[in-house]
Amino acid sequence: MSSDTKLGTLLDALPEDLAAPVFTHSSWTIRRSDSYERLAFLGDSVLALAITAHLYPRLEAERFGAGRLTKIRAQAVSGRSCMAVAQRLEIPGRLREAAPPGAEGSVRVLIGTERVLASVIEAVIGACFLAFGYDRTARAVVKAFRERIDDALEHPVDFKSALQERLARRGALVSYDVIEEQGPPHDRTFSIVATVGGVEVGRGSGRSKKDAEQEAAQTALEALEQ
What we know:
Helices cover 59% and strands 11% of the residues. By secondary structure, it is mainly alpha-helical. The N and C termini lie far apart (55 Å). The model has no long low-confidence stretch (mean pLDDT 88).
């Protein structure tokens, strides 16, 4: 067996019984269990563990406590990060090829959706874990997410704190409210609105409320800077 640990190489080597569901959206099959959802559920945990195990021994305990490690990991494996990795692995094209006849309209929407591409990447990771084991898959995951990990370490993002610091100068507070939830419980996307004094200042979406709040805070900051 090849020792190559590139995620794309492992993806190409997946057996058909795992490769097929990876690129099957739930709307394309009668049985939901034939879609990528279960594999994405598994892959989400493998992804988090692989990145955590990579970061933990490399970052000084004095400077990187549990809270800071959590933020770095969250940024490295965010929906945006997963989408970037998916695009690099040409996941949109693979989804288009796997779409059943008559699904051309839906596939155009799906391949541009962060939640879908992120879920497919997680499904890829879950399938690779089942086919090749944790160690080989984890090495491939770290390699695939290397740029996102480095970016999280060099440019940690905390737009919520930055926004609140700016608003504090004028004695204002920001609040975040969920305005929409989409997807099944294990693959949920949240839409958040940020308001100041009852006035909307930003919106965001993400696969967790924290990610969505960060995006809402980012859009609010960008609006304040205009």
